[in-house]
Amino acid sequence: MLDILHIHGFKCAGSTFASILHKNYYENLLSIDSNLNERFCFNEDSFQSFLKNYKAVTSHSLKRSKLTDKNFLKTIFFIRDPFERLISAYRFERFKQDEIELSLYKYIVNNNNYSQDYQTSLLIPDESMQDENIENIIHNYCAEKSNLFLGVVELFDESLVVLEEEMMAHNTRIDLSYSNALNVQGHIQMPKFIKECIKELSSIGLKNDHFLYAEAKKVLFSKISNIDNFDEKLLSFKNRCAKVSKMFSIDDKNVISNSFPTKEEQFKQKKAFKRRFFNI
């Protein structure tokens, strides 16, 4: 059995977690990606031919399946606040990759793949997505799948401490400390009326994702409450991260200047964001 299958959701801390896996598994980590828009599943032959020399897999392209449930100790998803993930996905495609020219308004109303219960679709089988009892299905997946681990992006460190504990319970020791979050874009404070407009536009397409996010947090908090001395373990984890971060930084001044945009840069970002949002 392999240790970890990481289903890399777009703008869900996936690059950061993949780098953590690389630190731990190195040549025993397999990264699988595809140019196809649709995700695919492993079959038995794939396992025999591809995975015999690996211990962990990270992928933008794979789906969960009964086969992965059977062959991986943990299948890991990180769930993010759906509204924040949608904004981050748009900004990444629009400003960093320069792959789209749509305004945010058009990005949402054009039923983009990333704005329609994207996170739920990674977790739940396709045939269940239209089920009228979809919330019950989501609840059962979150509560009953023992090898499924749902981290929460907004509680990233807490999630990693819980995951370390769960892996240790399976006699697998793994150090999930990290230096810095990757692919993080500076936060833009949007005017309230724009934020409410976007939320209203996206609310219908993100209903299941909002429910999934709430369930993931509920399950995570339940796990935290069952871990002895969790606060001490979290503090120890943060100290480990700080040590790793120092190893990779040249000096504190350089780290700060690279991590936080200046006031002038923030002003330019806000201006560009407003202009492109209203370019309908």
3D structure, described in words:
The chain has 280 residues and is an alpha/beta fold. Helix content is 54%, strand content 10%. It has 13 helices and 5 strands. Strands 2-3-1-4-5 form a 5-stranded parallel sheet. Helix 7 (134-144) packs parallel to helix 10 (207-225). The longest helix has 19 residues, at 207-225. The protein is globular, with a radius of gyration of 20 Å. Residues 250-261 and 276-280 have low confidence and may be disordered.
Mean pLDDT: 79
> Which sequence of strands runs across the widest sheet?
2-3-1-4-5
What's the count of strands?
5
SS class: alpha/beta
Choose one word for the global shape: globular
What percent of the residues sit in helical stretches (DSSP H or I)? 40-55%
Give the biggest beta sheet. 5 strands, parallel
* SSE topology string: EHEHEHEHHHHEHHHHHH
Distance between the termini: 51 Å
Q: Approximately what portion of the residues adopt beta-strand conformation?
A: 5-15%
Q: Regions with pLDDT < 50 over 5+ consecutive residues?
A: 250-261, 276-280
Rounded Rg: 20 Å
Separate helix tally: 13
Detail the topology: elements first, then pairings.
Blueprint: E1 2-7, H1 14-25, E2 29-32, H2 44-50, E3 56-59, H3 66-71, E4 72-79, H4 82-96, H5 104-109, H6 118-123, H7 134-144, E5 148-152, H8 156-169, H9 192-203, H10 207-225, H11 230-248, H12 252-259, H13 263-277
